Structure formats: structure tokens, C-alpha cells
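In response to reviewer comment 3 from the previous cycle, which asked for concrete evidence that the modeling workflow produces usable outputs, we include below a single protein chain processed end to end. The sequence was submitted unchanged, and the resulting C-alpha cells are shown without manual editing.
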Amino acid sequence: MKIKLIGDWRAVLKRAWSVKFNVLAALLGAAEMVVLFYQPASIRPGVFAGIDGGVSLAAALARLVAQNELSGGKNGNS
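The workflow returned the following C-alpha cells.
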């Protein structure tokens, strides 16, 4: 199977909420690693993991929602 980019990948990368949520989830995962390394007493263990899980779920749901700025105003319908 050959992997091929979609034609409007730049627009999707800039505008899709699923991409934005996935980037946020990655940043939260990295922040969790920093917190675990420095172990500040003010942040309870698992806080970032919980938030990260919620953001990841939002990314999955956002992938299913039609976005007019990406679908050419067709609302996801061909």
C-alpha cells in the first residue's frame, strides 16, 4: 500500500480542528513528561494524563464533524 497525501493537505493542516487537538494532546504529553521529571508538589500525578485523554477524545470527535472552510461549503457532502 502506497501512502499518498490528500490534495488539500495544507488547508487541512492549517484549519482542521482534529489536527489542532492532536497537536495540543502531544504538547500535553510532553508537559506531563517535564512535570514527572521535575515533580513539582503543586501538580498532582495524572492531571495531564486526564486532560490529554479528553483532548484526544475531542480530536477523534472533531475528525467526524464537517468543517465548511475545509469542505468548500458543502458541509462534508459530495
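The chain has a mean pLDDT of 79. We consider this sufficient to address the reviewer's concern, and the full set will be provided in the supplementary archive.
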